[in-house]
Amino acid sequence: MFIHREFHSSQAGAAGHPRFFEGIRLSATARHREKELIYAQGDEAGDIYIVEFGCVRVSRITLEGRRLVTGFYFAGEVFGFETGTERQCYAEALEYSGTRTFHLEGRDLANPRIAEMLFDHLESIHQHLLILGTQNAIERVAAFLVGIADRRGVDGPRARLPMSRCDIADHLGLTLETVSRAMHRLQALKLIRLVGAREIVLLDRDALIDLGA
């Protein structure tokens, strides 16, 4: 889910709240080590989380024991919305990360900023379902890589991926082998260059955008 662009700034940290969050009572920054559990599936729901820095992965274990990665969240993005009183997903820091929280109550829905957050959250779910329902593996991976680079605020062609290929597979509804083949296919097409397991160079961003559209 995406949050107002004012939060996408190195200045939007503990030193001062961005204008977008004025009137919203935020907690102090909690710092999380890599792979640290932020909350567990089955915990009591209520608090909404804002990523200050780093990357958070939100996942769910199905009744069959399969993991589904529902999203990755970067600085300025919000996660932790639940429709019930119990968390249906769990959240982990993929790297050293900082989060802040606020509590959502019924009267908060009248706040236009909160309403915008909820709208963006629903829109991101809709877009993800659209990708899963209409795109093949290469198109999904292309769209994902460009999206991650954009959300991390990468100006140049090089982008680091905090998530593993297994994480990507569980997010895009693919197998690990399919994700690896798709990445190598994109490299063969000279759209990307793979630099190790967690770094890529976007050689033709426009072509990737067209492919993932």
Task: Describe the protein.
The structure is a single chain. The chain is of the alpha+beta class and 213 residues long. It folds into two domains: 5-132, Jelly Rolls; 136-212, Arc Repressor Mutant, subunit A (Orthogonal Bundle). The protein contains five helices and eleven strands, in the order ββββββββααβααββα. The strands form three sheets. The chain has a four-stranded antiparallel sheet, with no helix packed on it. Strand 4 and strand 5 form a beta hairpin. Helix 2 crosses helix 4 (176-188), helix 2 (137-151) packs across helix 5 (205-212) and helix 3 packs across helix 4 (176-188). The model is unreliable at 1-17 (pLDDT under 50).
As for the CATH topology of the largest domain, it is Jelly Rolls
| Distance linking N and C termini | 18 Å
Q: Whole-number radius of gyration?
A: 17 Å
| SSE succession | EEEEEEEEHHEHHEEH
Low-confidence stretches: 1-17
Quickly name the level 1 CATH class of the largest domain.
Mainly Beta
- Determine the structural class based on helices, strands and strand pairing: alpha+beta
Dominant shape:
globular
What's the helical proportion of residues? 25-40%
Strand content: 15-25%
Task: Please identify which CATH superfamily of the largest domain we are dealing with.
Answer: Jelly Rolls
Short recap of the structure:
Residues 36-80 form the Cyclic nucleotide-binding domain. With 213 residues, this protein is an alpha+beta fold. It has helices at residues 112-134, 137-151, 165-172, 176-188, 205-212, and strands spanning 30-32, 37-39, 47-53, 56-61, 67-73, 78-79, 90-93, 97-103, 158-160, 192-194, 199-202.
